[in-house]
UniProtKB/TrEMBL annotation:
Pfam families: Acetyltransf_1. SUPFAM superfamilies: Acyl-CoA N-acyltransferases (Nat). This is N-acetyltransferase domain-containing protein. It comes from Perkinsus olseni (Perkinsus atlanticus). One of its GO terms (molecular function) is acyltransferase activity, transferring groups other than amino-acyl groups. Residues 52-174 form the N-acetyltransferase domain.
Length: 178
């Protein structure tokens, strides 16, 4: 039996809460409204920076394709630079994303906006459970808001049994839709 995936979305115009909520997600939305996103409650991991790949990093295992669709977490401690996490994404232009606007329950007045899709988030085992992944997603959302002014939402898919991932994405503002 194929794995069923759970879809999460976030309204990245308002970073602290996803406005794209349905009845099932209302409890989560209220909880997120009541508390600030993770990145404002917990300091970032020491020595980690978040950025787009450098030219020499394109074509590597963590950024094999288009560098504009890759975002990195880099450990800069001890005068070294080691990629400890990466995020792969794509952007759908508003006119080409009409089906996604409906699926993600984007309000009609915002349906001409762009949509981001996070296809993969990976953190090295020795950097997990330290906030690296959450901060990387949060910083990516911030960059998307600054770089793509027409972006109205971002979404990703999570396996239903992956409770830790669900919690991490909810903590940075994503809301479960399905």
């Amino acid at each position: 039996m194929p794995a069923v995936l759970v879809q999460f979305t976030v309204d990245i115009i308002v970073p602290s809460i996803a406005l794209l909520v349905n009845t099932v997600a209302c409890v989560t939305a209220r909880r997120l409204l009541a508390s600030p996103p993770l990145h404002t409650r917990k300091p970032p991991p020491s020595g980690i920076i978040y950025r787009e790949p450098l030219p020499e990093e394109v074509g590597t295992a963590y950024c094999p394709e288009d560098p504009s669709e890759c975002f990195l977490a880099v450990n800069t401690t001890n005068n070294a630079t080691e990629v400890v996490g990466y995020l792969h994404y794509s952007l759908m232009a508003g006119d080409g994303a009409s089906g996604m606007h409906k699926l993600l329950k984007i309000p009609k007045k915002m349906r001409t906006g762009d949509i981001g899709y996070i296809s993969d988030v990976q953190v090295l085992p020795n950097s997990q459970n330290q906030g690296v992944g959450s901060w990387m997603v949060s910083e990516w959302l911030k960059q998307m808001r600054e770089t793509w002014p027409k972006i109205v939402a971002a979404y990703l898919l999570v396996k239903p049994g992956n409770v830790n991932a669900k919690k991490a994405y909810e903590n940075v503002g994503f809301t479960e839709l399905m």
